[in-house]
Amino acid sequence: MQFFKRIPLPIPPLACALMLLAALGGLPACGSTPQGPPRAEDELTRDVYQRDCARGIGSACYELGESYVDGRWGPTDDTCGFALLEQACLGHYVGACARVGEMEAEGRGTAKDVTTAAAVLQRACEDGSARACGYLDGLGRIVGARTMNHAPTARARTASAVD
DSSP assignment, residue 161? Predict the structure, then answer.
């Protein structure tokens, strides 16, 4: 089953491209509804991550996506955060795949889709994400499906993994 579309990372993802245009004054940015006055260092931090994400750096898309989900450097925007985390996952950033699976299972920033969430979490677990394996176990108990059986070797590999 293929649940990831391969996108060449040198071409900026739509979400990052729109954010870069917003940073340059062209479009409204994700989370453009302010929650208090922005701090200059927070704006600078997001700008740096936006530029790096637009260049296809998966870790930058991950950090930027998380910042929109948790409000670390400004206003929250789950939809934008999800899009950035999904792009980081497409770039094989395993921690982002774990977060994408969690958000899809909860319907946070995207439509709730437990089947797709399980597939994304399965892949992230097999790729070494302890966080994904743990969430997948919990998801299996909630859904009651035993079709979500990740390999014992993946679990052993993730025993010392850090997300």
Answer: -
Taking the C-alpha atoms of residue 24 and residue 28, their distance in angstroms, rounded to an integer, is 10
Do 59 and 129 lie in a common domain? no
For residues 99 and 82, state if they share a domain. Answer: no
DSSP 3-state of 136: helix
The verdict on residue 23 lying in a domain is yes
The domain of 150 spans 94-163
Asked if residues 15 and 132 have their Cβ atoms less than 8 Å apart, the reply is no
Q: How far apart are CA 160 and CA 155, in angstroms?
A: 10
Residue-wise pLDDT tens for the chain (163 aa)? 344 444 344 334 444 444 544 544 433 356 554 455 557 788 888 889 999 999 989 999 999 999 999 988 888 999 999 999 999 999 889 999 999 999 999 999 999 999 999 999 999 999 999 999 999 988 876 655 444 444 444 444 444 444 5
Asked which of 91, 108, 126 is the last residue of a domain, the reply is 91
- What is the crossing angle of helices 94-106 and 130-143, to 10°? 20
Measuring CA to CA, how many Å separate 95 from each of 19, 23, 79, 154? 22, 26, 18, 15
